Amino acid sequence: MAWIGRTSTEESQDPRLSLIRQLQRCRSAIPDTWTITCHFFDIESGRLPLGARGHGAGAEKFDIPIARDGGIADLLREASSKSRRFDVAISESTSRIARGMFESLSIERTLENSGVPLFAWNESIRLDGGRSQQILQRRINQSVAEYEVYNALETSWGGLCAHIREGWNIGKPPYGYAAKRYRNPNPVKADKGSMKSRLVPDGLRAETVTQIASWRYFDGLGYGAITDLLNADLERYPPPQPPGGVRARGAWGKSTVCEILRNPKYTGYQVFNRRASRSRSGKVNDPALWVWSPCPVHEPLIPKWMFDELTARRLARRSPSKSRPSTTAEVRCYVLRGRVFCFCGRRLHGNHRKGITYYVCWPKANNRGRPDSYAGHPRARYANESKLFKAVARLYSDRLLGPRHLDRLTGELALAVTPGSQAPSDSTPHPENPYFSEALAALPRNAHTDLLAYLPFLITNLESAPKPLLLRLFQVTKLAIRLPASGDVYSLSLSLPANYRITVPSRRTS
């Protein structure tokens, strides 16, 4: 048998005790002749999407006396293997498999299609072949598990909204405010040291916020001009300090000024849910979803009428292309992103203008007020993507294959194609090219083994390869492009696993 365990993140409970209890319960439920030989468990949220499950690395931090054979992803991979070490899987409950009905059913179906029945400690284990009652009970348990998740989320959300509407602050106070702490109204929490906080003006920083809004509203200054004025007198306008101080720049930036002018808390109202910190990686939510206090609850640093006017001006200046929601097709993909380095050590970022894609290092953009950090650096360093890509293609073909090996490999690849199908060539675009389809299918599994099997073909067809394949190929081979201080003589490097050998991938007949 294979045991499946899962516990929430370490902030929610003690993973060690939870996993030990789950394993003991499963052992007590199985027949005496059955033995648990494999242990698969994860320390992660059960609400993660199925593709993100089983890739966490938090079990090593705890002294868990259970030999771990992997996570849920490793279980599913071994279940489909002919050499698997188990015939049956068991878990404490289906909620340990996943909290969502869809994810739980998907894992259950995958195991059953591989010939591995799934049992649970809180369900009856029947060996006579009857499954109707077991399926009914399991579907009820899965529905209850998903209901409990959403019910807990809605209850917690309601408590946060009530907390905000009473004027209490959540998280770090924004720049210009300090937190004035109060004893928690709940005596039980107060005895444990729990506090609540409200926002109060923070001296020079509060005056700085008001001055920024004044420059923007009355003088019409841009973010860059305001940033330069602030950096000209850092004693009068102290720069913000990030939590921990590790990322402190010691100077003002345009993004900081922009964020201050867009934060509605400076109007005196308490506002929550401005950003989707968990579900959308911190992106700004629609203002209709923001939660406001019914009236001002702390001293405003920017008048409400001024904040509304600045917001209206900003929206009026938006171009039609920026005001409409973006689609997936409009998102540009830079195949060499994160791979091009300037001589100063910074990564170049991609840009596209007038039909030309290029990469640029502009140190002043993120170092306003700190000219010493890019002394001696050109104002900007540019690199054309098409020129870089041609150099990359030559690097792969010349250094990995060699001229004579490349000619021989091209012929062998043509012979390796199934009779009746088209031979792979530069003129064969994706998705008709069978090698591209197989290589793309290998991406979700293991890039370091499956993708390298198609490396010779990718090298000979680099210019026509799909962008997802190129991005993963450059990641696996650790491609790096370094630019000199001047000129177009670039330094390119890549590396492969020590045991890699160039072979011709064989085609399987359908």
Strand content is 5-15%
Number of helices: 16
Structural class by SSE content = alpha/beta
Radius of gyration (Å):
29 Å
- How would a crystallographer describe the biggest sheet? 4 strands, parallel
Number of strands: 16
Low-confidence blocks of residues: 415-432, 444-449, 504-510
> Taking strands numbered 1, 2, ... along the chain, how are they ordered across the largest sheet?
2-1-3-4
Q: Distance N terminus to C terminus?
A: 34 Å
Mean pLDDT: 81
Q: Helical residue percent? A: 25-40%
* Tertiary shape: flat
Quick recap:
The chain has 510 residues and is of the alpha/beta class.
List the helices and strands and how they pair.
Blueprint: E1 2-7, H1 15-29, E2 38-43, H2 72-79, E3 89-91, H3 94-97, H4 101-113, E4 118-120, H5 132-165, E5 177-183, H6 187-191, E6 195-201, H7 204-217, H8 223-231, H9 254-262, E7 271-272, E8 275-276, E9 283-284, E10 291-292, H10 304-316, H11 320-323, E11 340-341, E12 349-353, E13 356-361, E14 381-384, H12 385-401, H13 403-416, H14 434-442, H15 455-460, H16 467-476, E15 480-482, E16 491-493
Parallel strand pairs: 1-2, 1-3, 3-4, 11-15
Antiparallel strand pairs: 5-6, 7-10, 8-9, 12-13, 13-14, 15-16
Helix pairs in contact: 8-9
Protein described:
By secondary structure, the protein is α/β, with parallel strands linked by helices. It is built from 16 helices and 16 strands. It has helices spanning 15-29, 72-79, 94-97, 101-113, 132-165, 187-191, 204-217, 223-231, 254-262, 304-316, 320-323, 385-401, 403-416, 434-442, 455-460, 467-476, and strands at 2-7, 38-43, 89-91, 118-120, 177-183, 195-201, 271-272, 275-276, 283-284, 291-292, 340-341, 349-353, 356-361, 381-384, 480-482, 491-493. The strands form 6 sheets. Strands 2-1-3-4 form a 4-stranded parallel sheet, sandwiched between helices. The protein has a 3-stranded mixed sheet with strand order 11-15-16, with helices on one face. Helix 8 (223-231) packs across helix 9 (254-262). It is flat. The protein starts with a strand and ends in a 17-residue tail after the last strand. Residues 415-432, 444-449 and 504-510 have low confidence and may be disordered.
